[in-house]
């Protein structure tokens, strides 16, 4: 049985030394011959499996992907303008909405006693 060399068609030769043994490491290609690492670029333009382009993924403090309507828990006390107590750690926030807010505030929500607020996803954990 002959080897099917076309198996490696998707791996382009090394741009540094033209070596053909490059392998994928995450999003990069690595050449074992000269050690060069490079990004394969948009050669997978036809692939439709990476989800809708432009869609932003918002993750909580521990890396859970957040979605509209999720319930999250605030993991650290937050100061709120005009409130002496602020938001306490452990406060539950229901029905969040992901937004492209200013200054990294990517969650729009309503917190009892505070009203509508915007939070950073880094200070919450999916409940
Ligand atoms: Zn190389």
Question: What does this protein look like?
Answer:
By secondary structure, the protein is mostly beta strands. It has strands at 23-25, 28-30, 37-38, 58-59, 65-66, 72-74, 92-93, 97-98, 107-111, 115-119, 124-126. A three-stranded antiparallel β-sheet has the order 1-2-3, with no helix packed on it. A three-stranded antiparallel β-sheet has the order 7-6-11, with no helix packed on it. A three-stranded antiparallel β-sheet has the order 8-9-10, with no helix packed on it. The chain is built from no helices and eleven strands. Zinc ion is lined by residues 14, 16-17, 19, 31, 33-34, 36.
Short description:
This protein is mainly beta and about 130 residues long. Helices cover about 0% and strands about 25% of the residues.
């Amino acid at each position: 049985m002959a080897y099917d060399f076309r198996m490696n068609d998707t791996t382009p030769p090394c741009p540094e030394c033209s070596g053909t043994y490059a392998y994928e490491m995450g999003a990069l290609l690595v050449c074992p011959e000269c050690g060069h690492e490079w990004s394969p670029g948009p050669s997978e333009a036809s692939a439709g499996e990476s989800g809708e382009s432009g869609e932003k993924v918002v993750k909580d403090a521990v890396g859970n992907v957040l979605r509209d309507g999720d319930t999250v828990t605030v993991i650290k006390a937050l100061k709120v303008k005009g409130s002496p107590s602020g938001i306490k750690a452990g406060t539950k926030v229901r029905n969040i909405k992901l937004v492209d807010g200013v200054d990294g505030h990517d969650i729009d929500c309503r917190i009892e006693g505070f009203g509508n607020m915007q939070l950073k996803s880094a200070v919450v954990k999916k409940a």
